[in-house]
Amino acid sequence: MKKYLILCFIFALSLTSVNAQDKDSDHVCKDACCAVSTFAPQKGDFTAAMVFGRGAYLNGGLVVPNSYPSTVDGTSPYDNTVSANSNSITNMIGAEGRYYVGNRFALTLSGGAIMRNTPAVLAIPGVPNSSVPAYAAVDSSEEIDVTATIGGQWLFKTKNDRLFPYLGFALPFDYARQSLYDPTITVDNLGNVTITDLGARHADITAFGVQAVAGVDYYIAKDVFLGFDIKPVSYTYAVSVKTPGPGLMNLESENNTVSFFAQFSFKLGFKF
Fold it and tell me: Which pTM was predicted?
């Protein structure tokens, strides 16, 4: 009698499992009854991946004008994140997060920021013929590099339960800034005073664009995947502004970059 009860229980459990799978064509169950769902991302899942490839900070052509410039440098900005050479799969360039708002669609966010600041220190003259030394001035400097990209990706399922290609778009934004200020003041033997900088000198680059994204994820374990993506088409607009000093005219220059199948990245990610 006990044997028949166990068989009935197994039979009922099997019917329940089959019925659940029939009702859920997108494999929303997360237990052993659904092998595909073991690997496929589902609504509410979050993935985080380390991205490898060419550097993601756009700061090409960021040149700060010199002190007392006879000519303000005319170097224009350029998208140094796109290059025909120097791509490396061993170069860690940042992280990417994806949140699945549905079983087939995810919102993406990636980016990073680097900020450095050195305050200026005035020079201190020494005492002649004594042990009191002169102290040189410390130049003030400021460096900012910011990159942020938002986008969306549509996931596709294949006959391979571990392989998931995707198509999507990305909207990158980049900002870079360098600022220099030399507080050095010198006095010659005739008493003439020379002030190196009246104020800080700046160079800024602001860029934004739009990109198509195509890639594939392969799950080597339930919650661990390797990925590869490429930008079939990418457009970036960048503008730089150079300020040689307070009250002086700025020099602006622009750049447009269009690339095709020129940006690649490799990913190592985890699903939560």
Answer: 0.79
Judge if 14 and 115 occupy the same domain.
no
Instruction: Give how far the C-alpha of residue 161 lies from the chain's centroid of Cα atoms, to the nearest Å.
Output: 30
C-alpha–C-alpha distance, residues 211 and 1, integer Å? 66
CA distance 88 to 81: 12
Which residue from 237, 227, 260, 83 is spatially nearest to 153, judged by alpha carbons? 227
Tokens for 64, please give them.
């700060």
Evaluate if residue 15 carries a pLDDT over 90.
no
**In terms of domains, do 243 and 151 share one?**
yes
Residues 34 and 87 in one domain: no
User: Both ends of the chain: CA-CA distance in Å?
Assistant: 44
**90/32 same-domain check:** no
The range of the structural domain enclosing residue 162 comes to 41-271
